[in-house]
Amino acid sequence: MSPDLLAIEELTVRLRTRRGIRRAVDGVSFAVGSGEIVGLAGESGSGKTLTALALLGLLPGGARVSGRVMFEGRDLVGLDRRRLRELRGREIALVSQDPMTALHPLLRIDVQLTEHVRAHLGLSKAEAEARAVELLAAVRIPGPAAALGAYPHQFSGGMRQRIAIAVALACAPKLLVADEPTTALDVTVQAGILRLLDNLRHEHGFSVLIITHDLGVLSAVADRLVVLYGGRVVESGTTGEVLASPRHPYTRGLMRALPGAVGAGQAMTPIAGSPPTLDSMPGGCHFHPRCDWAVESCFTVVPARREIGGGRTLACDVDPLRREGPETAAADRDGEPGLEPELQR
Amino acid sequence: MRTLATPAVGATSAAARVGPGGASPARVDPARVEPARVDGALLELDKIAVTYRSRGRPPVQAVIGATLSLAPGEIVGLVGESGCGKSTLGRAALGLVALSGGTVRYEGRDVPALGWRARPDWLRSLQLVFQDPYASLNPRRRVGRQIADAIALGTGCRRPDGDSGAEVVAALERVGLTSHVATRFPHEFSGGQCQRIAIARVLASEPRCIVADEPISSLDVSAQAQVANLLAGVAAESGLGLLFVSHDLSVVRKIADRTVVMYLGRVVEEGPTAQLWSAPAHPYTRSLIAAVPEPGVTGLLPAEIAGDVPDPARPPPGCRFHPRCPLAVERCRVDEPPETARPGGAAPSGEPARSGRVRCWRSEEVVELGKVGGASRASSPDGLPDGLAGATQ
Question: Do A194 and B302 make contact, defined as CB atoms within 8 angstroms?
Answer without folding.
Answer: yes
